[in-house]
Specification:
Blueprint (H helix, E strand, L loop, with lengths): L2 H13 L4 E8 L6 H12 L4 E4 L1 H6 L1 H9 L3 E4 L12 H14 L8 E3 L8 H9 L2 E3 L17 H11 L3 E7 L3 H5 L1 H10 L3 E3 L5 H5 L6
Parallel strand pairs: 1-2, 1-6, 1-7, 2-3, 4-5
Helix pairs in contact: 5-6
Bound molecules: zinc ion (ZN).
Length: 215
C-alpha cells in the first residue's frame, strides 16, 4: 500500500475515536546543543513540553534555561546532581531538591513539579518533595532512548508502540542525548502519523500524574 493510502486509512480508522492524549517530557538537560535542537523541533510542531532539569546543568547553562522558558515550556526539578535519592539521607535529599528549586525559581510559574532520577522513590523522598511544595510527576511510557541498544532510532518504535495502547501517555525522553535530538523531528512526525494524537499542554501534567501506570 502506498504511503498516501496508508495514511488515509489510518485517519479513517481513527476518525470516530477521541484522540490519544500525549504529554512530552524531557529529562537531564539543559544541554547547549541537544536541548536547543529539540526546542526548534517543538517550535516547528507548536508543541509545549515539560523539561525536568538537573540543577548543576542549570547553573552551567542559564541561557538555555531561559530559552526553554521563553518558548513557553514548563520547567521541572530533576535534583541537583542526579543521584539515586533512595540511597541518600533525608538532609541530602532535601538539599538535592531545594538547591535546584532555587536555581529554577525564576522559571517556574505554576505548581512546582519534581521528577526523581531513575524514578527512584520511596516514602521519605515523597514526603520531602511534598514538604518542599513539589508535585512528583513520573511517566508511563519509557522508550529507553538512553539505551545504546535503542539508539539511534529504535526508541521511536518503542515510544509509538507503548503510546498506541494508551488513551493517555506521559512520554519520557532525554534532551541531553544526541541521538534523541537528531531524531526528535522524525519521532514527532511518526507519532502524528500513527493516528489522532492530542499533544497536551504541560500545564495539565499534575492532573494526570496520579493516574500513570507504566508497563
Ligand atoms: Zn534523569
Amino acid at each position: 500500500m502506498s504511503n498516501i493510502y496508508s495514511s488515509i486509512f489510518t485517519r479513517i480508522r481513527h476518525a470516530g475515536k477521541s484522540p490519544r492524549r500525549v504529554w512530552l517530557t524531557l529529562d537531564d538537560g539543559p544541554d547547549p546543543i541537544n536541548t536547543e535542537k529539540i526546542l526548534k523541533v517543538l517550535d516547528r510542531h507548536r508543541i509545549k513540553a515539560a523539561f525536568f532539569m538537573i540543577g548543576e546543568k542549570v547553573a552551567a547553562q542559564p541561557a538555555v534555561v531561559q530559552r526553554v522558558f521563553d518558548a513557553g515550556h514548563r520547567i521541572g526539578n530533576h535534583t541537583f546532581s542526579h543521584r539515586r535519592l533512595t540511597e541518600l539521607t533525608a538532609a541530602e535529599i532535601r538539599d538535592e531538591i531545594e538547591t535546584t528549586a532555587k536555581l529554577i525559581s525564576a522559571f517556574t510559574r505554576d505548581e512546582k513539579i519534581f521528577r526523581p532520577p531513575f524514578g527512584a522513590i520511596d516514602q521519605t523522598v515523597c514526603a520531602i518533595a511534598d514538604d518542599l511544595g513539589h508535585r512528583t510527576v513520573l511517566w508511563n511510557v519509557d522508550p529507553t532512548d538512553w539505551d545504546l541498544q535503542c539508539q539511534p532510532k529504535g526508541w521511536i518504535d518503542k515510544a509509538l508502540h507503548a503510546t498506541h495502547k494508551r488513551e493517555a501517555s506521559v512520554i519520557l525522553a532525554h534532551d541531553d542525548r544526541r541521538t534523541t535530538a537528531e531524531n526528535f523531528d522524525l519521532f514527532i512526525r511518526r507519532l502524528k502519523k500513527s493516528g489522532r494524537i492530542a499533544f497536551e499542554n504541560p500545564a495539565t501534567l499534575c492532573a494526570i500524574a496520579g493516574q500513570l501506570n507504566p508497563d
